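Quick one:
INPUT:
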């Protein structure tokens, strides 16, 4: 896995994104930190598509709150041959 750090704006807020493994992303999600999911071929802070930022407490009203459910749901709707078949995980740090 490449070590990638990105700084930019996400929904008008300055953020720093650090690419992490799926295991680290799961730990961050369970600890109620914000993570970002992005298809593998896309830039997470792009003009056309921005990755999906997810926090566990924001999903408490839904049935599928487990990390695996979130990943499978994201992969089903967002990953294809044009955007990439795999998910890249990022830790979101608000500056």
């Amino acid at each position: 896995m490449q070590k990638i750090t990105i700084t930019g704006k996400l929904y008008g807020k300055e953020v720093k994104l650090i690419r992490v493994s799926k295991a680290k992303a799961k730990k961050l999600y369970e600890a109620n930190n914000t993570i970002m999911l992005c298809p593998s071929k896309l830039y997470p802070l792009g003009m056309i598509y921005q990755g999906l930022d997810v926090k566990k407490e924001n999903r408490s009203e839904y049935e599928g709150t487990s990390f695996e459910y979130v990943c499978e749901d994201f992969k089903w709707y967002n990953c294809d041959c044009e955007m990439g078949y795999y998910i890249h995980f990022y830790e979101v740090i608000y500056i």
